[in-house]
Amino acid sequence: MKALNIASILLFETTPDLTLVFMLLFIVGLAGIFRKSGLKWWWALVPCYRGFQLSSCAGRESEGRMYFLTSLAVVALSITGILVLKQQGDNLSGTAVLLTILVLTVRIARFFYSIRIFMGLIEVYGVKKRWLWLCLTSYTSWIPLVIWGWSNAYQPGWKVEDIKALLAKLAHQGSATVMDKGLTVNLKDRTVTENFQKKVLLRDIHMAIPQGHMVLLLGGSGAGKTTFLNAVNGYEKANAEVMLNGSNMYTQYKKMQYEVGFVPQSEMMRGKNTVINTLMDAAKLRLPMDVSAADRKARVEEVMEIFGLTPVKNNLVEKLSGGQKKRLSISMEFISNPSLFILDEPDSGLDGVMARELFEQLRKIADTGKIVIVITHTPDRVIDLFDDVIVLAKDSARTGRLAFYGSIEDARKFFGRERMEQIVKSVNRVEEGGDGLADEFVMKYAKEVA
Question: Domains along the chain?
Answer without folding.
Answer: 2-157 (no CATH), 166-449 (3.40.50.300)
